[in-house]
Every structure is written in C-alpha cells, then in structure tokens.
Specification:
By secondary structure, this protein is of the alpha+beta class. Helices cover 16% and strands 31% of the residues. It has a single domain, classed as Pnp Oxidase, Chain A (Roll). The protein is built from 5 helices and 12 strands. The strands form 3 sheets. The protein has a 7-stranded antiparallel sheet with strand order 3-2-6-9-10-5-4, with helices on one face. A 3-stranded antiparallel sheet has the order 1-11-12, with no helix packed on it. A hairpin with a 4-residue loop joins strand 9 and strand 10. The longest helix has 11 residues. It is globular and about 55 Å long. The protein starts with 8 loop residues before the first helix and ends in a 20-residue tail after the last strand.
C-alpha cells in the first residue's frame, strides 16, 4: 500500500540498536506504567519504572511483570527475592517526569525516592514502600519467577495483598475507573499519554448484541 512502510526480518535485525529498540517497544501499543517500590535487607529503598505489568488472574489475584536478564545488578530483583514484597504505583500527570528520572542508574546505596523527590510511605502489612503521590497503589507478595529462555528474561508473578485507590473511582459492580483516578499510560520507552474513554461495553454473549453501559 502507498505510504505504508514494510520491514522484513533482515531490515529489523540490521537496524541500529537504539532505533530497533524504540521501534519494537512501540509495536505492542499503549502500555500500563508503574513505579515498582522495593526495599533491601539493609533498608535502602528503590524505585524502578516498569511498563510490562500484566494481569495474570483474579482468583487468586495475581499480577506479573517482565524482569530483564539478571546478568547485571538488578536492585528490584534482588530486593524482591530478599523481602518477598513489592509495590506497584500508577503514574499520574503530576509525577511522570519524576518517575521517569528513576530509570537513571544510581549507586546501590542511593534511593530513587530521594533522587526523584518522591515520598515513600508504608502500610502495616507490606515491607516494601509505596509512592505517596500515586493515586492507585498495589501491594504484592512474590509468588514465583518463570524463566523465558529465548532472551533470558523472567516473568515475575506476585499475589495482590492490598490495594489503595480513590473511593469515588470504584463503581458498585467492581469496576475501577483508572482514568478518573488520573492514571496515565506510555508507549515505546519515553513517551507518556493521557487517556480518554470511548465506551464501556456490556458482557458479550452469543444470543444478544452488546450495548454501552
């Protein structure tokens, strides 16, 4: 088709590394974006920016994310294994620039909370810190890691143990309106987006047409 770019395997593999990384990271579309809060056994807190958080199941309540190869120091990974606890904290427009700063490489003794000027807070049940400025905060207990041999990454799975969110964003049927809560999304490696709901649709059944609810 005219005005359509067409790349094949050889084109992709021969690209300059950063160009290929930006392109491939764009292909999966808009992604959730969270700050993952952890703490080391020495008491040093850590924040890492994660755009691969996925729903694993609702009963039990499980969430997962992709951990890059642990061939180098990964403070998030080490802290999760040491304490068994971590948090996911939704980004909003007030903190996304500070959150992006946490992706810089800091010494192990430096807390990204302090470096990015974000506030750590704790609950009674989680060892790991939450981001006070986040509107939706999720506490998780580590369950298991699943190796992905093709590229050396790991699927990290955790059980949801507690949730914090604005009361006015939770509807009677259980739906959590994350747009109303101010959560934003991301694409590629460095781009952030507001969201705008088009419609919420009824449960699809073969004997009836869907409708907006």
């Amino acid at each position: 088709m005219k005005n359509t770019e067409h790349l094949v395997k050889g084109d992709i593999e021969s690209m300059e590394r950063r160009t290929r990384t930006q392109l491939i990271n764009s292909l999966s579309g808009f992604k959730s974006i969270n700050l993952c809060g952890t703490i080391s056994k020495e008491g040093v807190t850590n924040l890492s920016l994660i755009s691969s958080v996925v729903h694993i199941g609702a009963n039990p309540a499980l969430m997962g994310f992709i951990m890059r190869p642990v061939t180098v120091r990964r403070d998030t990974y080490n802290n999760i294994l040491e304490t068994g606890h971590y948090t996911f904290n939704h980004l909003n427009e007030a903190i996304f620039k500070k959150a992006h700063q946490t992706s810089a490489r800091y010494p192990v003794e430096t807390s990204e909370f302090e470096a990015a000027e974000l506030t750590e807070i704790y609950s009674e049940v989680m060892k790991a810190p939450y981001v006070q400025e986040s509107h939706i905060r999720i506490g998780l207990e580590f369950v298991e890691k699943i190796p992905i041999p093709v590229n050396g990454t790991l699927l990290m799975i955790g059980k949801v143990t507690e949730i914090f969110f604005p009361k006015n964003c939770w509807l009677a049927d259980g739906y959590l309106d994350i747009e109303k809560a101010g959560s934003i999304t991301t694409s590629s490696l460095d781009t952030y987006h507001r969201t705008q709901k088009i419609a919420r649709l009824s449960y699809a059944k073969a004997d009836r047409m869907i409708k907006e609810i």
